[in-house]
Amino acid sequence: MTYAFLGGALVLILGLIALYNGLVRGKNAVDEAWSGIAVQLKRRHDLVPNLINTVKGYASHEREVFTHLAEARAQSIAAGSQGIEATAAAENALSHALKSLFAVAEAYPELQASANFASLQQSLSELEEALQMARRYYNGTAREQNNRILQFPACLIASSLGFNKAAYFELDSEAEKAVPQVNF
Predict the structure, then answer these.
(1) Burial class of residue 145 (count of CB atoms within 10 Å of its CB; 0-12, 13-18, 19+)
(2) Per-residue pLDDT in tens (0 to 9) along the chain, 184 residues
(3) What are phi and psi of 59, to 5 degrees?
(4) What is the value of pTM for the model shown?
(5) Which of 43, 113, 117, 174 has the greatest number of beta carbons closer than 10 A?
(6) Does some domain include residue 162?
(7) Which of 55, 135, 34, 38 is nearest to 99 (CA)?
(8) Which is nearest to 135 in space by CA: 98, 95, 97, 184?
(9) CATH number for the domain that contains residue 147
């Protein structure tokens, strides 16, 4: 009887260890995925001033657009330390501001013909694709970790061990989810 009890206790302890280690691996995967998004956001934030300066040379009287874009960029950078939800909201605002900048750019044919602007626009396009892939990877790892946390038996102990659901990096509205149309 004591051997059965000891064997059962050992199996339970090994199961808890395996469960805990799985939760740790999941949390680390979510953190790694978020760091991939952070890298792409940093690249995006670094590209915005170059875009502003290029467009300013052709459309210097569009101050409101430039000011709004610079403010949105600053808020995006600041939101990086405020959590996933704040970062997603700030990045959505930056996306709106970038769309405004490109709308202004459409009114200036000489800007559209600029090799520098075309190069920056291509870089932004490639960066947005990389950011989309990083978001998709992050949301997949967040989903897997959330499944681990919510499934039995982990749901019984996950929160007491400090494991909480990971937030998804989502777009705010259906309009944001649509592919932007930028014509140059």
Answers:
(1) buried
(2) 688 888 888 999 999 999 999 999 999 999 999 999 989 989 888 888 888 888 777 776 677 888 888 888 889 888 878 888 888 888 888 888 888 888 877 777 777 777 777 888 888 888 888 988 999 999 999 999 999 999 888 888 888 889 999 988 886 654 444 544 444 4
(3) -130, 55
(4) 0.72
(5) 117
(6) yes
(7) 55
(8) 95
(9) 1.20.1440.20
Containing domain of residue 152, as a range?
19-177
Residue 7 CA neighbour count, 13 Å, CB half: 4
Domain count, the chain: 1
- What is d(CA 13, CA 152) in angstroms, rounded to the nearest whole number? 16
Q: Which tokens is 50 given?
A: 């170059």
| Domain assignment present for 173 | yes
Q: State the greatest distance between any 2 C-alpha atoms of the chain, in Å, as a whole number.
A: 88
Joined together, the tokens standing for residue 77 give 């950078």
Position 9 in a domain? no
**H helices of the chain, where?**
2-58, 63-79, 84-106, 109-112, 115-150, 154-157, 174-177
184, part of any domain: no
